Amino acid sequence: MAKELDKVDVLTVGVGWTGGIIAAEAAKEGLKVVGLERGKERGTEDYQNIHDEYKYAIRYELMQDVSKETLTFRNSPDQRALPMRQLGSFLLGENLGGAGTHWNGQTWRFLPYDFEIRSMTEEKYGEDKLMEDDGYRLQDWGITYDELEPYFDRFEKTCGLSGEENPLGGKRSDAYPTPPMIKTPILKKFEKASSGLGYSPIMMPSANLSEAFENPDGQKIQACQYCAFCERFGCEYGAKSSPEITVIPAARETGNFEVRTHSNVVEILTDEDDDSRVTGVKYVDTRTREEFIQPADVVVLNSYVFNNYKLLRVSDIGKQYDPETEEGTLGRSYCYQIFGGATGFFDEQFNTFMGAGALGMAFDDHNGDNFDHSDLDFLHGGNISVTQTGNRPIATNPLRPDTPSWGSEFKKESIENYTRTLSVSGQGATLPHKDNYIDLDETYKDDYGVPLVKLTYNFKDQDRARHQHLAERSAEVLEEMGAKEVSKAAELGDYSIVPYQSTHNTGGTIMGDDPEKSVVNTWLQHWDRDNLFVVGAGNFVHNSGYNPTGTVGALAYRCAEGVIRFAKEGGRLEDK
After folding, report:
1. Transmembrane stretches, by residue range (predicted)?
2. How far apart (Å, rounded) are the C-alpha atoms in residues 536 and 306?
3. Within a domain: residue 48?
């Protein structure tokens, strides 16, 4: 029998970036907030001995335990979905801070084109360019870049983001809080080459800060030490903006926020007398397996893309998407990304073992609709960049094509190329297709008896064409940089969930201004439950050529405003 606890004003399911933002903003308004985090407590003091590549980067110390919960995967509905037994593509974070602890810190704003992709594409190229006969399902987000811009600005100031103006991005209301990071010889070489080709390179917006900063909540973030242990690691210096050093302490300092760790939510509870409202959640203590019911006036789902979807589905909230009829919205529009790049082999040596998670330069001349698509068989594009994130010795082994996988030549090439190779990568968007979606598995369950998420996904023709385009542009940059040999990325085949590619999963709980085409409205309020909010990359209607965290943070601040308004006014939130 589950033990029922005292009701709170606001309940967040997950305490990472989005959960921390909701908690901080609601708590500052005097609302009593509880955050349920299924992992453990952690912070900067836990990362003092974290320079252990094998433990953290290979064995995934900070990631979700797939022996307890994973997902099943297949390329198409006629295949059998099988459980994912290792974290390949998706490094799902676990414990306080979530993926906001182990991220690289590359923090972009999506382009204005992203938010109005359907209307802008149709207006410029005509309806046929939407390629609906090929199964693509583009739609606008229900909100414009200009409407979301103040929330982008808010998130960037919370992070103390280091960067510079992007001439091909959306208009900014203010400059970045801190100046860009150090421009290393590698970045200068990329800048000279890409500028020479007519492109517009800028320093990458970075949550690894170029200088110490105190954010508007009074939280202090330190200057980056360029130690090269960012992605898959927590920052021992408190110099990578993460929830544990920004929004979570800001929430706690109000006295109105409680983090409850080791608390795995298994169900959202709906009011038996009023199915337009939820009453709270049921959760399990992961150590004792004791069950609890936590009532709340407002429930906010703040966990990862797959977990937000899963909680809605197992709680029978919303209508599951059916790829045959295309009815239902829950689980539709799942998108990933493609990486069309190239590797250059040089005679000169570079300090590739040094760097930071978001130390890089990039240009957007082939991103979004910044280039003409009239004669191309794909839409959108990608952000093309060189990064100096720090090549660690176990996971880094750049080899020329056709090099043997063992023996003396393998060893010679490995040693020779470790500091003599640079990669230019095109991080490309993917667009929603009717055959790519999220569902629940009929066979496999997690450690708590809840069905696993089932992912059906494969690359489509547009992905392959976009990937090829970005690989060719990346190769041209490397040639201009003086590489003696350039190896382009191989053409895309079927999507494989291993090896790692990125953690940039989107869709499944998409936003919009029409309940027939979206799961939540533009305040991230669920169409079917007035006091339930869902926020994260699952709200994205499609993916972009960027890392998602900047846009997730902006949506979280907008959601927080909606939560506070609902707590005070109630009812269905309307734009104002």
Report:
1. none
2. 10
3. yes
Residue 27 lies in a domain: yes
Q: Which residues contact 78 (CB under 8 A, 6 or more apart)?
A: none
Is residue 574 assigned to a domain? no
Determine the Cα–Cα distance for residues 108 and 152; give it in Å rounded to an integer. Answer: 9
Measured between alpha carbons, how far is 98 from 359 in angstroms, rounded to an integer? 22
Closest CA to 82 of 499, 444, 457: 444
At 380, which CATH number? 3.50.50.60
Q: Is the pLDDT of residue 576 over 70?
A: no
Burial of 353 (0-12, 13-18, 19+ CB in 10 A): middle
**Total tally of structural domains belonging to the chain:** 1
**DSSP code of residue 289:** -
Contacts of 66 (CB under 8 A, 6+ apart): 84, 85, 86, 87
Residue 146 CA, distance from chain mean position: 21
SS (H, E, C) 415-473: HHHCCCEEEEEEEECCCCECCCEEEEEEEEECCCCCEEEEEECCCCHHHHHHHHHHHHH
- Which residue in 102, 467, 469, 504 is the catalytic one? 504
Instruction: From residue 87, give the alpha-carbon distance in Å to each of 64, 477, 501.
Output: 8, 32, 11
The question of whether 526 is a catalytic residue gets the answer no
pLDDT digits (tens, 9 = 90+) for 483-525: 999 999 999 999 998 888 888 999 999 999 999 999 999 999 9
Q: How much is the CA Rg of the chain, to the nearest whole Å?
A: 23
Instruction: Give the torsion through C-alpha atoms of 60, 65, 66, 67, to 10 deg.
Output: 120
Distances (CA, A) of 318 to 2, 210, 331: 25, 44, 10
pTM above 0.70, yes or no: yes
Look up the domain containing 279 and give its range: 3-569
Structural domain includes residue 575: no
Using CA atoms, how far residue 248 sits from 17, 24, 252, 257, 406, in Å, is 9, 7, 6, 9, 48
